[in-house]
Amino acid sequence: MLDKLTARLDFQGSALVLRAERQRQLASNIANVDTPGYVAHDVNFKTAMAAATGDVSSSEARLMLAAPRASSITANPAGALPAGVSGVTQQSTGSAATGRSISTSALMSGTSSPRGALTHPQHQALRSRLGTDPLETFPIQAQPSADNNTVDVDRERAALVDNTVRYEAALRFINGTARTLNTAITGQ
Amino acid sequence: MSMFSIFNVSGSAVSAQTQRLNVVASNLANVDAVARPDGEAYKARQVVFQTVPMGPNGPNDRSAAGVKVQTVIENQTPGRRMFNPDHPSADAQGYVTHSNVNAVEEMVNMISATRSYQNNVEIMNTAKTLLLKTLQMGQ
Questions:
Q1: Do residue B13 and residue A32 have CB atoms under 8 angstroms apart?
Q2: Where along chain B do its domains lie?
Q3: What is the ipTM, given to two decimal places?
Q4: Which residues in chain A show pLDDT less than 50?
C-alpha cells in the first residue's frame, strides 16, 4: 500500500539523481575544455533510467545490459568490418584524431558489432570503458581539434541548459506529487 | 549528493584558468623585455592542463573530472632580434635580443581563458540554483 503511494516519487527521485549525475558529467566536460586528449563523456539517460527503475520492458536497455562485454573489443578481424568503419583501416597512425572520430561515430550509430574494434595492429585500444558501459555515451565531435580533445563547448552548454530545465521539471513533479499526497492525507 | 562535486570540478577549472591568465599576464608584461647581460631573454610561458579524477567516492573515482595545471612550459624559439646599435644591451653586431612573446597569441589565449572561466562560473551558479531548489523540495 505504502509503496503504491510513493511509487511515483521513486521514479522522479531516480530521475533527479540521474539528472544530477549528468549535470556533473557535463560540468567535467566543460572544466576540461582545454585539456589535451580529454574525451568528452555523457550520460545515456534513457538506458540509465531504465536500469535505475528496473524497467525490463525496455528491451533496448535489457539488451545493452546483457550484451557480452569483452568479446566485442578484439574479436573483429580487419576484413570483417562493416562499411562504416572500413575507412579507418587505411589510415596511418599519424592521423589519430580523425581515426578516433570515425570509430567513435561508428560506435554511436547503433550497429553493435564494431564497438571499440581495433582495425590496425598499431592502433591503441580505445579506452576500456568505451563501448562497454551502455549508461555512458561519447558525443561525436563536429569539428576535430588538433589536441585530440573531443569537448564541444556549444554542445555542452546546450546540454547543460537542457539538463537544468529537466532537473527542475523533475523537482516540480516531486513537489506536485508530495502536495497531492498531503492534500489526500489531510483531506482539506 | 553527487551534485556537490560540481563545485570541486568547476572550482578546479576556474583555478586552472586563473593560473593560465596569470601566465598570460607575465608574458604580456615581458613582451618588450630585452635580454639580460648573459644573452638570455624572457621566454614565453604556457600552461599544460591535465585531468584529475574528482568523483564523490575518493581520488580514484573517475565519474567527475576536474582539471589542474600539470606544468608550465617555456617556449624555446629564439627571441626577436632587432638592429639597434645605440641600445645599451646591444651585442657586438649591434643587435638587441627581445623576448619571444607573441602579443597576438597571448591576447587570443587571454580571451580563451576568460571565456572558459565564465563558463565554469556559470556552471557553479546553475548547480547552486539547483541545489537550493532541491533544498526546498516538498515545502
A1: yes
A2: 3-34+42-77+101-124
A3: 0.81
A4: 56, 58-115, 127-131
